[in-house]
Amino acid sequence: MQDDRLSYEGTSLDPLTGPAASEMPWLRSYHDVVEAFRSKAFIQGGGGRRDSAPITGYGVLALAGRDHFERRRIEAVLFRKEMLRWFENGVLAPALAAALAGATGAQVDLLPFLRDVFCDLTCAFWGIDGVDTPAARQRFLAVVDEMTPGGAVEWERGNHREIVASSLAAQRRFAAAYIQPARQRREGLIEAHAAGRLDEAELPRDLLTVMLRNKQHFDRWDSEVYVREITLFAPGDTIMRFVPHMVAEIYGWVSGHPEDAARLEDVGFLRRCATESLRLHPASPYFIRRAVEDTTLPSGRSFRAGDYVVLDVTTASLDPSVYGADADRFNPHRVPLHKVKQVGLAFGEGPHTCIGAVMSVGEITARRPGPDDPLGLVPYTLRELFRAGVTPVGDGAQLNAGNARGEFTTFPVRFGAARPVAEAG
């Protein structure tokens, strides 16, 4: 049953209805964008009906106010330190080690390589069972590859209706083949736990289980909210898309600064490299907000209630008044001119800061991470890739001209002989 009470609103290059992003006013200075992110005068929402609504509608990125706060509170359990350590050491580490062991001396395209590596993580985070053979993995990844483009259709330059239709058909197949059996199994386990026949520690630790244990929240929307929320959280897909930029930037930096080559074992250095690369190449190039009241920014820009505004996080993160005259260049040792995040606005700002930021890059606050803090999936991956001697190959890398995200479609690399393993931290 479709609930038409919710107005889907979000970013769009070519909206099905409503104004296009190109027709809206754009905020491009760092301070304007931060103010709009933080201000209660603006809410999530964009040009008319959100094009990706059939794929990720009712998801945490489409919610505002109390609903958004409650959704984040429920899902925060998946981002606690003990969970992040398990995802990192218990899921990603063995998968990455096995893949690198089989790639010594080989030339591969880094994108499908990482796609396969992160398959186990995606299944573990979502709560998908039975993807445990090479054939099963390829079937799973094939339908995920078809399903996920519709969740980011707002940044696509192709025909949005066709992209959404294809993704929606794949999502329905995915729900039938994977969500339905996983849900039935988890509902049985949750029932057994409620009856005292199963300990808390024996319940699965994944997004689907978290949602099913909070049905009073999720059942306020239609029954497809579960598969839509799962589609929205695709950790492997997101990381796969921005790691190649990081490898390219780090390789270029070390080539020009050989004194930093020895620091490729240093997770702290790699984390700074990762955040600097994300500042330059954010996964989401812009967001759209809608004013809910008349408001004027400190810069003097004014908006009326109902106005849409584009938050250009790409340009704002290159603001030379904040990040220096060379803000458009990669420098992992960069010291911003103001007290701001080194990562720029890649993870958003304020109450809508990406819930998965620490999962992705680890602790990026000023304090020194403690021994129990997870390294972050990205710094961990980068360290292992460079230990395996990853090197970009020639001029074969290609960017995707079909969307506004600046992502690679192919990124050939070669692995050398594995380096001796230093201490894990």
Quick take:
The chain has 17 helices and 11 strands. The strands form 4 sheets. Strands 1-7-4-2 form a 4-stranded mixed beta sheet, with helices on one face. The chain has a 3-stranded antiparallel beta sheet with strand order 3-11-8. Strands 5-6 form a two-stranded antiparallel ribbon. Helix 4 crosses helix 5, helix 5 crosses helix 12 and helix 13 crosses helix 17.
Report on this structure:
The chain has a four-stranded mixed sheet with strand order 1-7-4-2, with helices on one face. The chain has helices at 30-38, 53-56, 65-75, 81-101, 110-117, 119-126, 134-147, 160-194, 207-212, 215-218, 225-232, 235-256, 267-280, 313-316, 320-323, 357-361, 377-387; strands at 26-27, 42-44, 107-109, 287-291, 295-296, 302-303, 308-311, 391-392, 398-399, 408-410, 412-414. By secondary structure, it is α+β, with helices and mostly antiparallel strands. β9 and β10 form a beta hairpin.
- Structural class from helices and strands? alpha+beta
Number of helices: 17
Low-confidence stretches: 1-11, 421-425
Shape: globular
- Per DSSP E runs of 2 or more residues, the count of β-strands stands at 11
State which percent range the strand residues make up: 5-15%
Task: Characterize the main sheet.
Answer: 4 strands, mixed
Query: What is the gyration radius calculated from CA atoms?
Result: 21 Å
- Output the helix-strand order: EHEHHHEHHHHHHHHHEEEEHHHHEEEE
Across the major sheet, the strand order is: 1-7-4-2
Helix content: 40-55%
Global mean pLDDT: 89
- The first-to-last residue Cα distance is 50 Å
